[in-house]
Amino acid sequence: MSVAAMTGPAPLLSVQDFRLEFDTFDGVYKAIDGIGFDLAPGESLGIVGETGCGKSVTAKSVMGLLPSPPARVRGGRILFDGEDLLRVGERRMRAIRGNEIAMIFQDPMTYLNPVFSIGTQLVDVILAHQRARPRAERMTRERARDHAVEMLRRVHLPNPERQLDSYPYQLSGGMRQRVLIAMALSGRPRLLIADEPTTALDVTIQAQILDLIGELRRDLGLSVVMITHDLGVVASVCDRVVVMYAGQIVEDAPVARLFDHPAHPYTRGLLAAVPHPGRPAASLSSIPGSLPNLLDPPAGCRFHGRCPLAGDDCLRPPPTTAVADGHRVACWRAMEAADAGA
Fold first, then answer.
1. Is residue 101 domain-resident?
2. 248-254 and 327-330 as β-strands: parallel, antiparallel, unpaired?
3. Which of 31, 143, 182, 219 is most deeply buried (CB count within 10 A of its CB)?
């Protein structure tokens, strides 16, 4: 599914008919099947869906982090500022990572080395980013240490000078996540990809991290892609949302429009499962069944086996329908579902 062409400036990131699969012992796993979306400069986009729908695979594809084999691109383009990231060499991708596009992950302890201090790791990351710059413009280690303190202060880590000498185990989960954000932004990228950045944190710290990402986005002019299964996160920090199901995009809309007028039955099911302060827990619903096996995807709409509106035409690939300005849905029942959600 392709996003509606956006007016105004050219997109910073444009994913076009992207297809990716993995070779496994059981066969070819068709992880991503023809997805497309645009991200404008300064925009925040949420990508939501169940575990296994392809959200993180999409993010890692943008970063060029999937090993090949077993991953194999079957088609499409990923354009960053007009440059196709699928066709640049590894040397160019190393220059882009960190300096142009950065990524933060959900479990800080997985990405921080427990035997090195925060300062050592942050300074090493900063110096690694410098290799893509002309030699005359590179920071010395002393300047890199000053920059590390500056970045820790920007992400509101208390006592940044002292924390440089701390080890990861000495910091709380929220503090470690702030360190990862400082690392990601130390190369001054234009695009930040956040892959479930609050999953391992308690609710209070989650809110602080989301507020921090929103603040940094405004102050630094960042574009943000937020990968999450939590629609509350999307409502907090995103301008627009893409809903993925079984390797495909089923709905793409502005956040307010999606919450007020969900048009795909899968999106409506996700929203019905979200707790609400004014709604009793007994009224929560679930989506029956589970994701299809992408080693052998079903014909037609991949959601039809779980969909309450499914009919015989759902055995054919659904059309992409514009149900409103900037709101597209891949569903045979798009207008019917949109009317029901109005």
1. no
2. antiparallel
3. 182
Q: Is residue 38 part of a domain?
A: yes
Q: Which domain does 333 fall in, by range?
A: 1-90+225-276+292-342
Name the domain count of the chain. Answer: 1
Entry pTM: 0.90
Which two three-digit tokens encode residue 303?
């959601």
Contacts 24+ apart (CB under 8 A), 287-292: 291/50, 291/52, 291/53, 291/245, 291/246, 292/246
Residue 197, in any domain of the structure: no
Provide φ and ψ at 291, rounded to 5°: -60, 145
Contact between residue 308 and residue 264 where contact means Cβ atoms under 8 Å apart: no
Beta pairing partners, 83 = 80
β-strands 44-48, 223-228 pairing? parallel
Interatomic CA distance for residues 234 and 247, integer angstroms: 19
Residue 137 lies in a domain: no
Residue 185 tokens read as: 């932004």
DSSP class per residue in 62-75: HHT-S-TTTEEEEE
CATH number of the domain that residue 54 is part of: 3.40.50.300
